[in-house]
Each structure stands twice: as C-alpha cells, then as structure tokens.
Amino acid sequence: MSLLRIRDLGVTIGRLPPGLLNAITDVPGVLVGHTTIVQNTPYFARTGVTVIVPRAGAIWENHVFAGSHIFNGHGEMTGLHMLEESGVLCTAIALTGTFSVGVAHEALQHYCPPSYGLPVVGETADTYLNGRMRNQVMKEHVDQALQAARGGPVAEGNVGGGTGMICHQFKGGIGTSSRLVKHGAETYTVGALVQANHGGRETLRVDGLPVGKMIGPEKVPLAIPAPVDKNSIIIIIATDAPLIPTQCRRLARQGAAGLSRSGGGESSGSGDILLAFSTGNALPLGMPTVDNLRMIHPDALDPFFTAAAECVEESILNALTAAETMAGYEGRIAYAMPIELLQAAIEECRPGKG
After folding, report:
1. Is residue 272 annotated as a catalytic residue, yes or no?
2. Is 270 a residue of the active site?
C-alpha cells in the first residue's frame, strides 16, 4: 500500500503542527485496526472493516465522553441515540460498508459489558466496486480488526472499511491526521480518521486550490459517472484534552469545516456523520461518581476547533493520495488520483502563477 501523503507533495494544511505520526494514533491510547477483503473467489469482495479503539482497549470498562454531529443524514451510525443521551462512548467504533453494519454491530456486542452499551458502527456504501452481495464481512473479520488494533502508523487508502470507497470520483478510502494544541503548560493532541466515500470531481480543493477542475474526466475517468448524488463520509475525531460531552459535540461539528474546505458536504444524498471523543477523563464502569472531573474552559476551545478542521481536511487528502487504482464488480474501475497531475494542478492554481 502506498505511503504517499499530501505533505509528501509539499502541501501543508493549516497552521497547527501535526503529531509525530500525523495520525489519530498520536492521541495516547487510541488504536486502529483493519481487516481488508479483496478477493474474486470463492466470492467476490472489495470491502473490509476498520476499528478505532480508545483507551488502548480498556474502553469496555473505562468509558470516554463523546458527542456526534450529523452534517447530512443520508447514512447510518448505530448507537448515536444512546451516545447523545448519555454523553458517553463505551465501545470500540467500527467503520465498514453499508451491508455489513449488522454483522459488525453483532460482533462488537460480544465485547460489551452485560446489559450495557450499544456498539457504534458507521457505514458508507462500497457497492460500486464491491457489488451488492451480503455477508462478505463476517464476525471473524471484525474480531481480526480488533486483534490487529495498534498504535503507531496507520495504513491509509484501500484498507479496512475504506477498501471499496470512492472520493471525489477518484479512488478513496481511509485517511488520518493529527494536530498538537498548546494549552497553558499542557500540550494536547487532536486526531481524525475518515472513511472517505464522497464528493464530486469539480469540487475537490487542496489547501483551498480548485485542483479538481484541473483534473477532469478527459484526463482521469470518473470512478462513478456523474451526477454524484449518493456518497458519504464518516469522520472520527479523538483527543486527550479533557472535554465534556457538550464540548465533544462541538468538536465534532467543527470537523465539518474540514470536510467543506476540501470540497465535500454539498450532496443531499450524502451521509456525512461525525463523532468526537475525549480520553481526558476516566469513567470506570460501575462507579457511582466521577471524581476529579476536568474540562477545558469554553473560552479556550478555539485552537481545538481549528485542530479538528485541519485534521479532517488533511485526512481526506491523505485518503486520496494513499489510495491505489482498483478494479471492482463487473469490471468497474476506480482510478487513483495521479500524483503527477495533482502536483501540476497545485502548481497551476497557486496564487501569483504567471
């Protein structure tokens, strides 16, 4: 899998510094695991599952504050009603294809404490490349992703839940990024991971530059023929800053700014769903009270909002640059963004050109 990322092209998104890995796993204790299913026999598949596990796997017994935002609702993420009511996330998060939500939900349920917790599973539709077969993702694939969940570098592009996804009518998939936020004597991390399956070609922007218009279908065929009216993105934002549920909800909402900056979020048929969680407070299962609860002062949230927007914007672009051309169902092809054309378009669009 390609390790090329948008910064490798000399493009710096935003003004805040990234973490060491520029990934959601820069947030201490956040793990990511993928199971990728690419095969033609015994059944055809271009799909998979990605899991995000807070607290280094202790999330089932030590929960986190969380909040969500529905930028556009033509999609699904299970467990959000309970999460919004309680302000608490008590499971790992799974991202997969539309027809695999049920099996991923059932698989995560086995890890939940008895009578507590509804699994959180988000989906985007990979049916263009994957076809409409059911049961391609099975319980053991979710188990494998959980067992593979690690800190460190995160594979991007055609992996896990992003295997069959398409972004801005190029091949898309999984992308991630992070930012460091200085707050008094402390430095906190904000990280994002996206399952990018959204957007039209002409709306794509890189650091504000309208590069999508420069790489039209006469140069690279559209992965899905226009018009594109049903496409989606799932955005997960994590931080170790001590945020309470209402602040997590606001952080999730700010992630939509990053989606918009990269040219997404304009489709009525899109499921643009965001979830943010904070590991900054301990919420042990069964404890009648929460001691030493901490929070960032509301007047000091601005840099965290900036970090969320920058992380999401860069995560989407990393998904695009890491993805590789994929042949799918019935010979359909999703072409990767050609890096040399992207570099030329960036140069052509830069202010002061000519």
Report:
1. yes
2. yes
